[in-house]
Amino acid sequence: MKFTAVVVIAPPELEDTAIEVAQRAGATGVTILEGKGIGAQQKKTFFGLTFEGSQSVLLMVVGTHLATPILKSLHEVLVDGDNSHGIAFNVPIEHLTGIDPRQLVKFEEYMRRENT
Length: 116
Description:
Layout: E1 3-10, H1 15-24, E2 31-36, E3 44-46, E4 49-51, E5 54-63, H2 64-78, E6 79-80, E7 83-84, E8 87-93, H3 101-114
Antiparallel strand pairs: 1-5, 1-8, 2-5, 3-4, 6-7
Helix pairs in contact: 1-2
């Protein structure tokens, strides 16, 4: 089985929704990281204090066949007309270790049940 990493960077208020739609599209586990970004726009100051927006970084390792459905689902959460509220992308994984082979068997069984 081939794997890909799906990465989502979005505001914390969209974290739960992004996880829910990704799981409905087939993601099983999600690693959540906190981050802050420096975007194309300058940092805003308010009464002399600099505001830096925090971001949630969601990392999912999924079967390659699930990457596109997950990204399509996330598009609905992250894009509102001309406004983007985050970014999602996938990166192919060439080598992977640390996954118990029994987990792979259970995952493949789960996918077969879902597709029937």
